[in-house]
Amino acid sequence: MDPAPPPSDSAAIRRRNLGLVLRHIADHGPCARTEVAAATGLAHGSVTALVADLTDRGLLREDDALRSGTRGRPGRPLRLVPDRAAVAAVQVTSEHLRIAVADLAGEVTRRETVAHDLAPGTPEAMADLIAGVIARLADAVSRPAAEPATAARAAVAEGIPGPMLARVVVAMAGPVRDDAAQTVVVAPDFGWMGPVRLRDLVTARLPELPIAIDVVNDANAAALAEFHALDRDSRGLVLIEAGTGIGGGVVLDGRIHTGSHGIAGEPGHLPVSLDGPDCLCGARGCLVCFAGPEAVYEAAGLTDLLRQRGLRSAEAELLARLRRDDPRATAALATAARALSAAVLSITALLDVDEVVLGGLLAEWYPWLSPALEADLSGRRALAPGLGLRISPSALGEDGIVAGALGFARRAILSDPSLVPGR
Questions:
Q1: pLDDT band, very low/low/confident/very high, at 159 (cuts 50, 70, 90)
Q2: 172 three-class SS
Q3: Given a cut of 50, is residue 128 above it in pLDDT?
Q4: Superfamily of domain 232-394
Q5: What's the burial of 130, exposed, middle or buried (CB within 10 Å: 0-12/13-18/19+)?
Q6: What is the CATH number of domain 10-80?
Q7: How many CA atoms lie within 13 Å of 250's alpha carbon, on the beta-carbon side?
Q8: 357: helix, coil or strand?
């Protein structure tokens, strides 16, 4: 998910230019060729050729109505054909797959959940499940509607292929290395204690389908979605979220930062007290030891409820106790807040981000965490008021991971439409 290197051959340059044209029309269309040329810096003749290519792929069409421009002959504005190519997100959790499909305009057209019992289990079994879901989605997207629209009938008559599933992003609970194989480094919740080339496993099971498949860390996908959901200028964001443990993601200058080994943005294992309890990661006093769900529920006296009835029941009881100011519950959140403050102070000193977003259970606990966080950060804010660090609960909630994965897939297709075949 890091910036791609500059194209070095004519085919790569053409793919980049196709993306420039398609992204501009997707973001600003309908618009005329002259507007596209002015916005992208491409020559008018190049834009005409690129538009012809994108039209052959079924990704663009001309409006019937003529529109007068500022100069030259009136032209037919160009607009995106959003249903020519679909993208999908598959969020992998320890209990189910959360699935969504969207068109190139970003409109979600399908959502579903598929339960499984593959955690712990083998990567091959999970790859079988994911590949089966992708094959079914591809069939559903390509199947013609009972009453195709006039534009769709016209496109088919002109030889333009019908709708296709072009890209799928699998959001995985575990660090994912930003290498060619997009290797899952480790996934303890699934019993995968060594590197897994999940994308290769899934792709090998779909040899007949020309679908690009990516694997990303789920918290990174959520962080990217939260970044794009902001309604204010921001260059950097850190997401800290609690689910079964504590994970997160780092967005710098609009891009996910994964580090050298794919494990950047794992705040749960940031030590906040070196004389604290041992952590499963091999360190001591990590944030998850104080602010992770198990630690908070134990401090609040809810360990038995967690074991007997699960996380949802324990969380509901914790919130009920917090609302009535139960001493053990409020003390548990006070301890979590102090640890979280130490983590936030370290993260912001190192990365100088504008936003820290608290997601998952931390967002539910935000009303009780916020006063202590603000108090602990007040000294640094007073010393450097220009930093303007903002701490807020998640804007997207549990939909953030799927939204981020869909956004990543959509932007990838708009940036490189060459995967979508022409006539």
A1: low
A2: strand
A3: yes
A4: ATPase, nucleotide binding domain (3.30.420.40)
A5: buried
A6: 1.10.10.10
A7: 19
A8: strand
